[in-house]
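Q: Hi! First time doing this. I have a protein sequence and I read that you can turn it into a structure. Is that right? Here it is:
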Amino acid sequence: MGPGGTVATVFAVHANASHHLVVSRAVAGLPHTDLVGRSASAVEALRVFPSLAPDAVTVDVRLHDGDGIELAELMRDRRPDLCVVAFGPPTRRLLRRAVAAGVSAYVPHTATSEQAADAIQACLSGGGSFSSRTLTEILRPGPSVDLSPREREVDSMSRAGLSTGEIAVRLGVGETTVRTYVARVRAKDGGDPALPTAG
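A: Yes, that's right. Below is the predicted 3D structure, encoded as structure tokens:
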């Protein structure tokens, strides 16, 4: 239910047609909640968002013409009280970005209408909805799941405190190569893996 006991409104922004169907079914099953708009475009969503003034937005993290997490952040800049439910693959990088953007709930891109309804309801009730598995993934130390075997190896050595030179000797590669691997890890993992020292 929205502010002051009114009907809560939801705006769905999804590139995936199946997600629109999931959200439609989810909202239909929630009391005092209406779906006030649908869009497949980040540009259009940002244009109509002020006039729709929804209480909640559901959004794919990847849209055809933009980044759903960036879109959520822009909307929350305009409406800090807006609750956002993101749909996407539960990778650590995306989950951390979603949390940093103020997303209230994150459901897998394979979510059922029941899962989506639970997330939307929790969001509208002023809470959040991150599964224990999702939270574990966000907080899990170590490299991101999408690192190559060599990137994982370099990241592991970096976290163990080895210098760039020591890693290069152990792997039989040049220090420039090690720095390249570190840069790749940082790009994939949101910039937080350990940086080896020189020497």
